User: Fold this.
Amino acid sequence: MTNGDRGNGIVMGFTLSAIFWLIVGLLVGLWLAAEMVFPALNFAPWLAFGRLRVVHTNGLTYGFAVAGIFACSFYMLEKLTRAPLAFPALARLQLWLFNIAIALAALSLFAGMNTSKEYAELEWPLDIVVVVLWVMFAVNVMGTLIRRREKQMYISLWFLIACVVTVAVVYILNNLEVPVNLTKSYSAYAGVNDANVQWWFGHNAVGAVFTFPILAMFYYFLPRSTGLPIYSHRLSIIAFWSLVFGYLWTGAHHLMFTPLPEWIQTVGLAFSIFLIAPSWGSVVNGYYTLSGNWDKMKSNYLTKFFVFGITFYGLQTVQGPTQALRTLTSYFHYTEWVIGHVHMGTMGWVTMIISASMYFMTAKIAGREVHSEKLANLHFWLILLGQLLFTVTLWIAGIVQGAMWKAVNPDGSLMYSFLDGVAAMYPFWEIRLFAGFLYFAGIAVFAYNLLMTARPRPLAT
Ligand code: HEM
Ligand code: HEM
Assistant:
């Protein structure tokens, strides 16, 4: 077996793991959406909304997205450095440890073990496993980069390095905690400092997991699958440095109108607005790459995944900064609007780019065309419709919810009770559940199509 075969085996291992955790995470998401319409579904403690919600967010962020990032990173690394993976045995060990860790994480969250810090809910023994896994990944990334045979560092490698470094720094600093026993710990920070560190982590997790590596995939797989070189390498580098610089300061936009000092909130807000420019640097670069070749949207089944994916990223990075503005955040914070924002990014941008990259890699590794372009198109339309219905419905729900919370009678008393606001959400939650099913159907088609593409070839007679 050559080093290249070993690398391909690891890429496929992480790809299949990502698909598995995607299906699990989405089924939990559907159950959550159903619980909001039929609260009776909360019939056992381990099925309670509060427990399942973290299984959904962790399962999809760490199980699906991070496995997808590992798969695509190993693939891009070998191609862009023209060198085999530095330590394939370590990567194989990482694959096994990763799946064990995600399974244990899901079980511990089902069991109610939770630090109560969003996206950092895992208790300290699992945090240590996460750090070990990340070090294994970093050793392979840096080791392969050091041994690279291609001198030029393509933009995707820069985004990959940013992902490795940022996740390491923010994860460790936010998870510093004092263990009480094996399943319980308390944060090393107190009060407002704890909140500040938590959201500094939270927003950079969005940056380092849902943005940097996904942009790395976009910059690599869009030109590879269309045969069109990226419009401007210089623009991508400018966008990269300004994006990584800007991201680090924005966490406080999650804490507007809290006891956090006002100047920190203002810094978070100012940098949020600043982020529009570098984000759109990549969006524009993507659009210009296709200029004069828009017919690829029809002739190449993957192009539309990348174009729609980067478009949702573009919309997300205008919506995010504007909802950080004080006037808007005072209206939208805590409403369904934010859940709509989250899912345009995750279901539109992140999942579209990861799935398109996986089609490309799997077909190349299997040495054949994708099993069915028709099914890939069906997958695309189902997830597009599901996502749009999901997010637009929740934005409208957020506007209604915010208006009901703020409405006052002439004497200054509240026009609606909190329960009136909850009751008004039911129609929106029903539509969201339906949208979730549409989206899930698209992902089921994707999983089938990918497995059929990856299946071993029958031996030649
Ligand atoms: C310029 C870029 C962005 C900015 C400035 C931004 C801004 C914001 C703001 C202000 C919130 C808080 C809303 C509230 O609670 O009132 C938020 C929430 C969130 N955003 Fe973005 N956003 C950006 C891009 C993205 C992207 C690309 C994703 C990828 C999926 C994303 C995912 C999230 C998530 C998951 C939350 C919910 C956090 C929570 O649990 O409360 N954002 N964003
Ligand atoms: C079938 C598709 C999906 C359904 C039905 C679904 C459902 C849900 C539900 C019901 C919530 C809780 C909302 C609330 O607390 O009011 C939620 C939250 C969340 N979901 Fe999903 N989801 C889906 C897809 C995804 C995907 C693909 C990702 C990531 C890759 C994702 C990431 C998240 C995150 C990060 C949150 C937390 C949002 C916040 O705290 O602001 N979801 N989802």
User: Anything to note?
Assistant: The two ends are 22 Å apart (CA to CA). DSSP finds 16 helices and two strands in the chain. The longest strand covers residues 177-181. Residues 26, 29-30, 32-33, 53, 56-57, 60, 64-65, 338-339, 342-343, 346-347, 350-351, 436, 439-440 surround protoporphyrin IX containing FE (ligand 2) (CB under 6 Å).
